[in-house]
Prior knowledge:
This protein is of the alpha/beta class. The chain folds into two domains: about 90 residues, Roll (Urease, subunit C, domain 1); about 300 residues, Metal-dependent hydrolases (TIM Barrel). Strands 1, 2, 3, 4, 5, 16, 17 and 18 form an eight-stranded mixed β-sheet that branches. Strands 6-7-8-9-10-13-14-15 form an eight-stranded parallel β-sheet. Strands 11-12 form a two-stranded parallel sheet. Helix 4 packs across helix 7, helix 7 runs parallel beside helix 8 and helix 8 runs parallel beside helix 10. The chain is globular and about 65 Å long. The two termini are about 15 Å apart.
Amino acid sequence: MKLLLKACRIIDPVDDYQGLQDIMVIDGRIKEISPEIAGEADRVINAGGCHVFPGFIDMHTHLREPGYEKKETVRTGTMAAAKGGYTAVCCMPNTKPAIDRPERLQELERIIEKDAVIKVYPIAAITEEQGSMKLTDMDELKAMGAIAFSDDGRPVLSASLLRKALQEARAQGHLIIEHCEELSLAEGGAINEGEMSRQLGIKGIPGLSEELNVQRDIQIAAETGAGIHIAHVSTAKAADIIRQAKKAGIRATCEVTPHHIDLTEAIIREGFTDCKVNPPLREEHDRAALVAALDDGTIDVIATDHAPHHEDDKGQDFYKAAFGISGIETAFSVCYTRLTADGPMSLKALAAKMSYNPARLLSLEAGRIKVGMPADLAVADLEKTVIIEKDALVSKGRNTPFHGRQYKGEIVYTIVNGKVVYENSIQNDK
């Protein structure tokens, strides 16, 4: 199978490509990159000067299956990801049942093999039933295909157990992803503890609930010599703790979500539960600090924390509504607009945060556009204006706070192993 992309503006996180380039793909891999490639192909796509990125990799996605198919499935979640330019996602283990033992991982992999339209890498639980009582058999789960380990949705409550997990991770090369939350401080809270919680009379979640556990986890990682990845950083102080850890040589990496890059608690209003997320949307000084931390390298990765919910799970009561934002389809437009078109980051830096850095952390053959690499590509029209409409989302989860907001940049093709898995092209396809 031959695929030829013509007139591409290639954005690679490492190499610089000048002017328009053609990309020839043969049998799923990039065979040639040149200003003009002649010859026959099974399909020719005229990119018309659109920008071509390495396919995005999401380290933090909730596909909900098995157990919560009303919210999302592997099929609908990966279709939504493809629409967003993602060629690979890592799915979190807080399903029903949790992905905490070999037979459950095996069943999930059967579903992925049958239904996924992009690459899916399962993350297994750190502890059995995510209960912080007993470690899972991480060695066996990794041998069966688990790419990392997390109790996402909950922290590992026992410092002793986390220490043991990190010691094992260091010895065996496992990646531990921690949800940092001191539950006693967060308990009962629904939004950020700040001006909006006071105005609306809603119990808030203080930034300290995140920062305490970030500090704890990094100290344990330092003591064990292991690496640790901190999920969905949301406060300026948490980012600075990680910054100082990196300066001290501690093996700490972290991620931030598009919604924490773009939004603050200022958008919250009574009944608008689509903006209820954990960790919550914080204040403007936190948002600005997260953008700065991305720009200076403190934050390594942009991850969506795509958390789709059925409309019945949201409602208008902030206390009863589920935490989570459906965000994988909108991530690129939000990030390109806020970080590059209107922000400090170059396109290459954006590609690194969304493709290259996740690939390195996960040891994937991905994140680059170069000869010999798998042809996992996202083609974007950066001139396109996008107004997000919740009813146009592919995901089952329409719980988006971005509804009605305007951004720049739209994905027009997503290509996985040389196969077009999504297209919405205004270009000439010959």
